[in-house]
Amino acid sequence: MNTLDTTLHAGEHGHHGPAKGIGRWLFTTNHKDIGTLYLWFSLLMFFTGGCMALMIRAELFQPGLQLVEPGFFNQMTTMHGLIMVFGAVMPAFVGLANWMVPMMIGAPDMALPRMNNWSFWILPFAFAMMISTLFMDGGAPNFGWTFYAPLSTTYAPPSVTYFIFAIHMMGISSIMGAINIIATILNLRVPGMTMMKLPLFCWTWLITAFLLIAVMPVLAGVVTMMLMDIHFGTSFFNAAGGGDPVLFQHVFWFFGHPEVYIMILPAFGIISQIIPTFARKRLFGYASMVYATASIAILSFLVWAHHMFTVGIPLAGELFFMFATMLIAVPTGVKVFNWVATMFRGSMTFETPMLFALAFVVLFTIGGFSGLMLAIAPVDFQYHDTYFVVAHFHYVLVPGAVFAIMAGAYYWLPKWTGHMLDERMGKLHFWLSFIGVNITFFPMHFIGLAGMPRRIPDYALQFADFNMVASIGAFIFGLSQLVFLWNVIACVRGGEKAAARSWEGAEGLEWEVPSPAPYHTFATPPKLPESQR
Amino acid sequence: MVRITTITIGSGLGLALFAASAQAEWTVNLTPGVTDVSRSVFDLHMTIFWICVAIALVVFGVMFWSIFHHRKSRGAEAHNFHENTVVEVIWTIIPLLILVGMAVPATATLVKMYDSSEAELDVQITGFQWKWRYDYLDHNLDFFSNLSTPREQISNEADKQEHYLLEVDRHLVLPVDTKIRFLLTSNDVIHSWWVPALAVKKDAIPGFINEAWTVIDEPGIYRGQCAELCGQDHGFMPIVIEAVSRDDFQQWLADARADKQRVTAAAERTWTLDELMQQGEQVYLRACAACHLPTGEGVPGAFPALKGSAIATGEVAAHIDIVLNGKSGTAMQAFRDQLSASELAAVITYERNAWGNSLGEAVSPAQISRLLEPTTGEAEQ
Predict the structure, then answer these.
(1) Interchain CB distance below 8 Å, B231 and A341
(2) A250 tagged catalytic
(3) What mean pLDDT do residues A105-128 have?
(4) How many CB pairs under 8 A join A and B?
(5) What is the biggest distance separating any 2 CA atoms in chain B, rounded to whole angstroms?
(6) Could you name the CATH architecture of B267-380?
(7) B45, B84, B156 member nearest A379 (Cβ)
(8) Percentage of the residues of chain A whose pLDDT score is greater than 70
(9) Is A257 an annotated catalytic residue?
(10) Distance CA B111, CA B279 (A)
C-alpha cells in the first residue's frame, strides 16, 4: 500500500505533470516520455525497413529483373539491414528499458535523465542523414550492412561518408543509453532488492549494456579507419597500399558478433518476464538464467571469426572458432530448458503476449539449431553466404528479437496506456505474423541448401518456386504489421480499463503502481512486495 | 472479415504454387556432390541435422505436452517448484557431450579439406568485377569466363533457358581423378568462388592468395556462383566447370593454346571500320555495358558517361590509355590483359563512333598490339 500512497502523492503536484505541446517531447527528461519516443521511433523505422524488405521480396518474386536495377537492389538490402538493426530492434529495446527498468527496480527515473534525452534525440538526425543518401548522386550505401572493405572504401559511392557519420552518431547514442542503464540498475534499486533479486529483464539489459560499451567503440573505430582510407590517403584496408582487407572483417565482426547478442539478450529478458506470468509459476532456475546470460555474453567475444570461415584463416584458427561457437549452444540450451520447465506443471493461459512468447521459444530455437549447423566449419563452406544464412539470422531476429519486442509491447501496453488490448485483434495479429514469418523464412533454408547465394537480385530457375513462396509470405507478414499499428493506436485511445496488476499472474514492482502509470512513480522508494522479498 | 481474408490469401497462395510447380523441381537439400570431400560434408550435414531434429522433438514435445495438459482452462493448478540443481547440471552436461560427438567428425573433415599438398594441377583463379579469370599455371594458358546469358532474358524480353544465369562463354575445363589446387585472389574487391558439387567455397581477396583443392570423380558440368557481395553485378558472375577425362583434358589444352595463337595472329591483318564496329559492340556489351550501360550514358555519380565524354571524343592516346591501364582508385579496370589486341581496338573504335560520338576514325589492332608488347608502361606515351 505504501507504494500507492507515494505515487498518488506525487500526482497531486500540478507542476510535476508533463509540459504542454511539442516542448514536452523535445525537452523531456522523463523516462516514460523518452521510452515512448524510442518506441514510436523504432516502429517508424520498422515500417521503413519493412518497406525496403518488401521491395526486395517483390523483385525476387520471379526470376529476371522486373522492378529495380541491381545497383538499387543492393542499396535496398544494405539500408534494410542497417535500419532494422540500428533503427528498429536496438531502439525498441532501449525504449522498453526506459519505460520498465525504473519501474521494475522502484526508481523514480533513469539515473542520468538529461543524457537520456540527448541519447534519443541524436537518433532521428542520424537516420535522417543515413536515409538522405538514397537521394544523392551515386545512390545510398550499396555494400551490404556488413560493409566489407574494399567494396565500402575504394569502390563505394560518395555517400559512404554520410553513412560513416550516421554510424558514429548511432554509436554515441547507444553508448550513452547503455551507461544510463548501468548507472540506473547499479545505483537506484529499491532497498532490499539485491542483484540476485533483480528482475531478469533488468539483468539481461545490464549485461547487454556492458556489451554495448565494449563493442560500439570498435564499430566507431572501423568506420573511422574507412574514413581515413577514403579521404586521408591511409591504407588500412587497401592491399595495394600495403593494407589488409581481412583486417576489416576481423574488426567488424569483433563488434558484429556481440552486436548479435545485444539484439537477443534483452529479448531473453522479456520472455523470462512473460512466461512465468502466464504460467502462474515462478521462473525455473533464476540463478542459472543469470549465469547463462553472462556466459553467452562472454563467449560472444570469442567467436567472431565464425563469420569468416571462408576467408582462409589457418586450420588452428578455424578449429578454435568452431569449438568456441559450438559452446554457445550450452548456455542457450539451458535458457530454453528453463523456459520449458517454467511452463511444466504451471497453470497456463494464452493471451497475446504469451502467444508471442511461446512462438519466440519455438522459432528462436529453430534459429538456434541452424546456428549450430552453421558453426560446423567444414559444412559452413556450403552454407556460408547463402540463403541458409539468411534464413538462420532472420529466424533469430524476426520471430526472435522482433516477436519478443511485440510480446513485451502487448504485455506492458496496459501499464502504459491504462487500457487492455482487444484480445481478438491481438490474436489476429499473432496468427497472421506467425504464419507469415514461417512462409517467408522457412523456404529460405531450402533455397540456401539448393545453392542460392544471398544478396543477388536475380537467380537461376531452380530457385524460382521457393522464392515465390517466400515473397508471398513476406507480404502477409508485412501487411499484418498494420494490425499491430492498429492495436497500439486502439489501446492508446481506449478500451477496457486495466487494473494495476493487469495480468492475473504478473509479479513485480511495475504491477504495484496504477495503470496507466502516473507521470512520476516511486518519488520515494517503495517496499518490496512479499513475493520478491 | 477474417475468414474472407484467410480464404483469399489461401487460394491466392494455392494458385501461385500451382503455377510455379510447372516450372522446376523443389530442391530442398544440399547436393552430395562429386568428390570425396563433398560427400563427407554432406554426411556431416545430415548427421547434425538429424541430431537437431531429435533434440527438437524432445524439447518441443515436453513444451507442447505442458501447453496441452497444464493449461488453466483444463483446471491445472500451478506447482510451486522453481529450482533443481541436479536437473540444471544434467541439461548442461548432456548437450556438452552431444557437442563433443559432433566436433570429432567435423574436425576430421576440416583437416582433410585443409590438406592441399601434392597437387598435380594448379589453377589460379582471379576474381574481377564481374567475371573470373582462370590461369593454368605451368601450361601457358589463361582466359576470362563471362556470363553468357543474353540480356534479353534477364530483362524478360526473351524466354529464359534452362541454365539461365548459370552459363558462361568459356568453361573452366578440368581433368577428373586428378588432385587440382586452386589459388584464389582478386583484382578489385572480395569475391568468393563457390561450386557446391565440389564443396569448395573460398574467398578471393585482393592482396591474398588463398588455397583450396579438389579431386573430381565423375565427368560432367558443375555450376556455381560468386558468393560474396562484390558490387552491382554480383549476381551475374557464375562459374561453370567442365570435368573431362585426363586424355580429353590434354587434347583440350593443346586446342586452347592453338586458338590463342590464332587470335594473336588476327591482330596483324587489316580490319575495316565496319568489322571493328561490329566486334566492338559485342565486346562493349560483354565487358563495359554493366557500368557504362548499353546506351553509353553511365550512372551519374557512380559510373561516367561515354556518350559525348571528353575521353571518348578527345585525344585517341588518352582513350587507349584508360582502357588499357584503367584508372586507379576507381572501378575502371585495366583491360590490357583481359581482352585481345583486336578486341581492344574494336571496343575503342566502337566507343568513339557509337551513340552520336562520330569521330569516324578506326583504331587498328596492330596499333594496340604494339602497345601490348612485353615492356609494360609503354602505353603511357
Answers:
(1) no
(2) no
(3) 96
(4) 314
(5) 96
(6) Orthogonal Bundle (1.10)
(7) B45
(8) 96
(9) yes
(10) 49
Q: Is the pLDDT of residue A524 over 80?
A: yes
Residue A11 has pLDDT above 70, yes or no: no
Give tens-digit pLDDT for A138-180: 899 999 999 999 999 999 999 999 999 999 999 999 999 999 9
* Cβ-defined contact of B165 to A243 (cutoff 8 Å): no
Distance between CA atoms of A515 and A415, rounded to whole angstroms?
5
SS (H, E, C) B163-185: CCCCCECCCEEEECCCCEEEEEE
Query: Could you say which architecture CATH assigns to the domain B29-113?
Result: Orthogonal Bundle (1.10)
What average pLDDT does the segment A26-55 reach?
A: 96
pLDDT tens-digit readout, B143-190: 999 999 988 899 999 999 999 999 999 999 999 999 999 999 999 999
Q: Return the pLDDT at B268.
A: 76
Active site residue A109: yes
Residues of A whose CB is below 8 A from B233: 70
The region that residue B125 occupies, defined by phi over 0 for left and psi between -120 and 50 for alpha, beta otherwise, is beta
| Whole-number pLDDT of residue A522 | 92
Q: What is the pLDDT of residues B17-69, one digit of tens each?
A: 444 444 445 778 999 999 999 999 999 999 999 999 999 999 999 999 999 99
Contact status of A461 with chain B (Cβ, < 8 Å): yes
Which residue range is the domain that position A197 belongs to? Answer: 2-9+56-532
Q: Is residue A476 situated within a structural domain?
A: yes
Measure CA A2 to chain center: 36
For A417-439, the pLDDT digits (tens) are: 999 999 999 999 999 999 999 99
A378 to B203: CB separation less than 8 angstroms, yes or no: no
Chain B residues with CB under 8 Å of A74 CB are 229, 231-232, 234
User: How far apart (Å, rounded) are the C-alpha atoms in residues A453 and A323?
Assistant: 26
Say whether A174 is catalytic: yes
Q: Report whether pLDDT(A315) > 90.
A: yes
Q: Does A13 qualify as catalytic in the annotation?
A: no
Residue A218 lies in a domain: yes
Task: Check residues A191 and B336 and name the one with the higher pLDDT.
Answer: A191
Residue of B nearest to A355 (CA): B67
Question: Whole-angstrom Cα distance, residue A254 to residue A404?
Answer: 25
CB contact under 8 A, B52 and A460: no
CB neighbours of residue A186 within 10 Å: 11
Distance CA A83, CA A131 (A): 9
pLDDT at B4 over 70: no
Cα A505–chain centre separation: 26
Buried (b) or exposed (e) across A150-159, using 16+ Cβ within 10 A?
bbbbbbbbeb
Where in chain B are all domains bearing CATH 1.10.287.90?
29-113
Catalytic-labelled residue, pool A99, A261, A411, A511? A261
Closest approach of chain A CAs to the CA of B4, in angstroms? 13
- Look up A394 and say whether it is catalytic: no
Contact A318 B207 (CB under 8 A): no
CB contact under 8 A, A148 and B228: yes
Parts of chain B belonging to CATH 1.10.760.10: 267-380
In a 13 Å sphere around the CA of B318, the CA atoms on its Cβ side amount to 7
- Catalytic: A261? yes
| Tally of domains in chain A | 1
A284–B302 C-beta distance less than 8 A: no
Please compute Rg for chain A using Cα positions.
23
Cα-based distances in Å from B200 to A159, A426, A450, B128, B212: 35, 47, 15, 19, 7
CATH fold for domain B121-263:
Immunoglobulin-like (2.60.40)
Confidence of residue A18 (pLDDT cuts 50, 70, 90): confident
Q: Is the dihedral of CA A290, A295, A296, A297 positive or negative?
A: positive
Q: Work out the mean pLDDT of chain A and round it to a whole number.
A: 94
Give the pLDDT band of residue B5 (cuts 50, 70, 90). very low
Q: Which three cell numbers stand for residue A359?
A: 512462438
